[in-house]
Specification:
The protein has helices at about 15-60, 60-70. It has about 70 residues and is mainly alpha-helical.
């Protein structure tokens, strides 16, 4: 009596579910990380804009003297 073994091809449903679960977990971690980086970037950008405005207002009188002198 000969036995015919069918070659296993493809993935099982369990393997596919595990792979999808891992991808979802990695996507969640990346999303949280990127969110944190964006928040910090916006905070730094706002801080830089405030510092620039302060610098311009502090140096307005000094710049006016140079403009009046013709520089």
């Amino acid at each position: 009596m000969s036995r015919f073994y069918k070659t296993k091809r493809g993935f099982t449903l369990v393997e596919m579910v595990i792979v999808i679960a891992i991808i979802v977990i990695l996507a969640a971690v990346v999303t949280i990380s990127v969110s944190g980086y964006l928040t910090r970037g916006h905070e730094k950008s706002d801080s830089l804009a405030n510092e620039r405005a302060t610098f311009q207002s502090d140096n307005a009188a000094k710049n006016a003297a140079f403009v009046a002198a013709g520089f």
